[in-house]
Protein 1
Amino acid sequence: MLTTEELIDAYVADVARLLPRAQRADVAAELRALLREELAGSDDPLARLRAFGLPGDVAARYGQPATVVDPSDGRRFVRWSVVGVVVIWLLGGLAATDPLDWYRSYGLAALWWPGFLVVCFGLAGFARRRWPARFLWRPRKSAAGLVNRPGRVAAFAFWVLGTVVLVSAAWLLERLGAAPEAVRALTFDPDFVRFTGPVVLALLVAELALYLTVTVHGRWRPLTRHVDVALGLLTCAALIRVLFAGPVYLGAAADSTVKFAIAVIVAVSLLDLLLKARRLIRRPHLVAG
């Protein structure tokens, strides 16, 4: 059960994400102060928030949304239109044989996507007006910075087990009676154990400790969000060094496989860190809430 303050945080976050970036911090602060006053002493804060209006409608009152479809959907419609057309163009560029072929096959054809979105958003707006009770606002725990404790505990146990198996793979294979060749293939290179390995392990343990802290507290806080980004950057830097600092395992096949996996992990992690940093910059109302 969310507290009144957590409900306000979730509601403000849902409103602010629909506004232009330049307005978000000011509107969030004003709206949060207004809602704290409105909900002071309320026995049913969720009902009061729902009576205040859907986040999209409130954002439309504060901002100047594009009026392609419903005002509350205007910015999302434009964003998804641009993203969809660009993706179709990029994929078409990989498949086309020449610029003229691309223009005929994908360049113009991609414009069906905004029309498709017009129909979808139009139907969504009609449904909201026709059956308003089905579209009542529901607080998202993630919007208030809260975490799913059972899911986090399960994920933490999984990553701890995975780290133990990764570090002790050769030892475990030896205890299970595996062939000496398999044990040797997953034995760490001495230079890796001496230099790079301990740094990577220390960073992994630090990240596990951070996620355990967030799980115990039950929510992300400004400090833990910034530490998460900083640790992620350090871990990516250490893993990039692993890719170029010599072998990880004595077995060539195992070494090439783990380095490919590390390259994929670094690419995905950097994208995730970029999104997290972007949220920290674009959503100061949530970080400071």
Protein 2
Amino acid sequence: MFGETKAFSGFAVDDVEAAARFYGDTLGLKVSRANGMLTLHIAGGRDILVYPKPDHVPATYTILNFPVVDIEAAVDELGRRGVRCEQYGEPATDAKGIHRGGGPLIAWFTDPAGNVLSVLEDPGA
């Protein structure tokens, strides 16, 4: 039924202006605006809708993953841009916020609305 549909994902934020600055200026994504919402234009030609929700509650799971070739460099650059990676006890993260136990190396951080994002190491990224 939807096999040929160009589906897209979306998520809510409580402040569209803060989201636009974070995703555009801090993370360096191309961001466009229409009808009070944002569209994040990510590599690969797929867009992500970011919409306002006044009673927004942050997701308790990762809503967006950014594959990177070198997670150490990505986490360091996020830090220079004022983004702090989360420190978790389970799954355990190191002093930089990188989880190194099983699976890809991954670090989580949040957007201004509290939504969880990640960078994960993928040598083919």
Protein 3
Amino acid sequence: MSTSEKLGPPWTILKILRWTTDFLGERGIDSPRVDAEVLLSHALDLPRIQLYAQFDRPLIESELASYRAMIKRRAAGEPVAYITGERDFWSITLKTDARALIPRPDTETLVEAALKLLPEVKEDQRLRVADIGTGTGAIALALASERPDLDVAATDLAAPTLELAKENAQALDLSERVSFFQGDLLDALPQAWRSLDMLVSNPPYIGTSEREQLMRDVRDFEPEGALFSGEDGLDILRRLIPASLNVLKPGAYLLLEIGYRQGSAVTGLLEDAGFEEIAILPDLAGRDRVARARRTAQDA
């Protein structure tokens, strides 16, 4: 007899977590206990730590109904962040739904690198940064939240995605310093934004040849346009890297999130474009994650 068969009413927090962990695990969910806890804390509007403090608390029927509906969605493969409608990123919380890629902890590597490289300026000076392919607005809004002296342009090709980023900016009270523009890569930037102190981007970089290797949560639910970039995943970077030279100030940095096996190829693209001080930065797992490069300080 399985653990789930031994369990039954009254459904306390501990019992429902045990049952759900078994249920999700049997359906191939990679982190069934964590997902069960996150969704239950959302259903009960409790911090996760409070679940442990209230293990013996029975759930009322309305709470059970809400939780069951979420677990049904998770068992079908829908990502937790789409079910709860939010995801923590850096020091901010972002609204998340199927209009945009879910922000990942790996992308915080890019935010950290950008903050280290942005120069300090006098009180009356401001810096201009562009985030190309902003998605939820994660990078743009994280940078703006940390540096009040930044004005940020956030672009995206898809109008619904850009609307989600705007909603996040409004919720974080950052709309005055983050401007949104729709269009293809740098074509979206107005002329006034074509002299940047930094350009950052987490572009699509997965190859279409890797589609079947992706987790079901990603492959079946997150927007394809935010994931794939040609057979080898580099099509967008082949366009973005050389074009970025036309909008960066001399000496300004370009920061790109890349796939963990793309370090060598992206380094070659940056060298071919004429960038200097090229480096590939690792994420917390030690894998290649961010390409950093600098436009020459003086034009030839």
Protein 4
Amino acid sequence: MTPPRDRPAKPYGFRPRPRTQPPGPAAREGRDHVVLYGWHPVSQALANAGRHFHRLLATENALARLKEAGIELPIEPEMVRPSAIDRLLGPDAVHQGLYAEAEPLAAPALDAMPDDALLLALDQITDPHNVGAIVRTAAAFGVTAIVTTARHSPNATGVLAKSASGGLEHVPLVIVRNLAEALITLGERGFTRIGLDSDAGTTLDAVGPRRPAVLVLGAEGKGLRQRTTECCDLLVRIDATGAIRSLNVSNAAAITLYALTRSAGTAA
């Protein structure tokens, strides 16, 4: 009789689970349930004490990487093969061996914003890739929060979270019912409301450091709505000098935030 082989040591955080296939994430995700996948979104969420998890799936390599990074796991992980996560997300999702289901982060109130805040306001930007890229840029430039509406905006889950690359854990989303009313409230508090408009008469270079301030971005193609425009103190444009004058909204956000934060740093 062939002697039994030694069983390999269980990897970091491994816990066997029944081989059952739960419903896909699309059936559960929404404003009350979020799906996160990929190294940066999941690892940043795991490091955020404000995140509450329902489930964590990880490959053996991903678990080893989490251990090497010194990331504590707030929930017992399920070790799976990459194909198990592929079945949940689809073959084109770049999950890097990590998939999580969690509670959404608490949305702060508009009146809780500090007096020196730098905010972004999104006027019906619905593409989750664009919104996610804006969140990532906002995290890079120290934006205090992003103001968005309950309707006509993507949920902070899935593709948006992946595009944000962990930025959702650092830049809270302030959810409002009406963007114009929110801008009016911010104006009454002394916020300079700066709308980005390719047809504006004022260039971005002419805008000096402003705090508190809110940068208002409109959807690609449509731009800012008329009511939103009326609630802005300044309308500015990015002076593009090349053959293509229009920019993706997430790129425009990055350029504008760089200009505003550089000006503020220079002035200091």
